[in-house]
Amino acid sequence: MINKVDYQIELDQIRVALGYDFMSLALAEPAEYDYVIRWKYASGNTNDRYKRIVLQSGRGIAGIVFKTGKPFLIPSVQKDVKPDTLFNYPITKMENLNSIGAVPVWNDARVAGVLLGGFRGERQVTAEMLRDLDRAARKGIGDLNGKELLLS
Amino acid sequence: MTPGMDLRSLLMTKLFENSSEAMFFFDRQGKALALNPAAENIVDQDILKQLYQGNPEALCGTCRGYTSETELRTCLNCYFHTPDSEEFTSYQVYLETKDKGIVPYAATFHTIDDENGIRVFMLRDLSRQFTTQEKFYQNKMMKHIIEAQENERKRISRELHDSVAQELMSAVIDLRVLKYMTADEQLLKKVKQTEVSMTRLLNDIRNLSVELRPAALDDFGLEAAFRSHFKRMEQSYGLIIEYESRLLDKRYESEIETVMYRVCQEAVLNALKYAQVDSVKVSLTENDGVLRLLIKDEGTGFIQGGEPNGTGLGLFGMQERAELVGGTFTVDSGIGRGTTILLQVPVGLSRGKE
Fold first, then answer.
1. Which of A29, B128, B159, B250 suits a disulfide with A33, CB 3.0-4.6 Å?
2. For position A4, what pLDDT does the model report?
């Protein structure tokens, strides 16, 4: 396993390169922790609350991306999310994000992590930016190789 | 006339004039002979005129049917045409009143003068008793619904926990054993991936089971259920719950435990959703036979009775649940003051038996 610092530095670099206010990476825990998914690294975060959260597969942003393996985009949390469903996306609330995009991080044809980028102010994540985010994830992060297909 | 008779007729006159009970006197043909003021008050002017003119159908203008043995409201076998039958010594009738709409009355209809065929129709307003009765009924229904819901949840939750999760668990263990049976790297990698997915699935099923109804609540009581619920809240939402408890008993009646748990669940979820806080204080104590649950946050608060952020049904639901076990439920909140929710339920000896 590559140590912690590498992921953090890589994440910081991706955030600077793509210009997001906030960026985080969710990874599965090792067997001792039942392989639960957590937001392991964050860049541009305002607090450490994200570390407490255990994500459930199929729930929340990371959960959905993890399960479906598809990118996920909320251009404006204010406009696109009904207030009563807002709590399905706790990270938006914790980090006060108004626009988010998330993509799967592949490893050997399995979703191994979720990369999320978001803005706090008026700026919105566009479909094009989501594609850039996806491209970054497909280059691989840390020891995840980013490959969706084993043959490629 | 004897003084006794004098007094009696005086009393009867007073009764006629001042009684809150409506009285209608009819002759053999169904013509109204007299109506006391209470009766005149409930009948429409137009119908009043018809009654005095002797239209035998006049009463139908205001009557909306009576409750027979088989129907709630019917005109079948009208009481008006068959006085002095057993059925009509005391029965329920609905009248369209002048200013209160359709009102239920307890009625009697009987002959008081056989010779001249004079009959009296007396009515007593039942709407107050009706509302109370309805409230009781609603309460009872609500209790049944909640009970049914909890039972069903308990059943499904048990099934998931005891059978589905167990089976899956043994499958996961079988998979783990595989790695001692082969050295094939590729196969092991695949098996590992499967194991990861299945472990995650197992966790999902456990979560589902606990969310439906925590087995801890039935098996170990409030204390255990609260602690595991708070841990889950922290894991799912990053919300820290400062919990303290001083309980004299380990277990309470299942009904009370359920109410406590559900109210707490709802209140904490509300704090999480609307109060903009990342910590909530919960305390559970028992004092003088009263179980007290206090949930306090220092968040944004809200205006009570104002336009709700959510459905507004949560508070109502908590109130309902509290009432079911004879408890009291109070909310104290204001903009910028945070919110305090207090649930008090009598337990043990002081608990009123129904």
1. A29
2. 53
**Cβ separation of B238 and A56 shorter than 8 Å?**
no
pLDDT digits (tens, 9 = 90+) for B131-154: 888 888 888 888 888 889 999 999
The verdict on residue B178 lying in a domain is no
B189, B196, B278 member nearest A35 (Cβ): B196
Give the C-alpha separation, B267 to A87, whole Å. 15
3-class secondary-structure state, position B72: coil
Per DSSP bridges, beta strands B240-246 and B279-287 are parallel
- Any B CB within 8 A of A110 CB: yes
Same domain, B228 and B334: yes
Q: Does the model's ipTM exceed the 0.95 cut? A: no
Domains of chain A, earliest start first = 7-117+125-138 (3.30.450.40)
Residue B339 CA to residue B302 CA, distance in Å, equals 8
- Could you list the residue range(s) of the whole structural domain that residue B263 is in? 215-347
For residue A100 the two structure tokens come to 């988010």
What are the angstrom distances between the C-alpha of B127 and each of A125, B37, B66?
61, 19, 15
Q: How far apart are CA B9 and CA A103, in angstroms?
A: 94
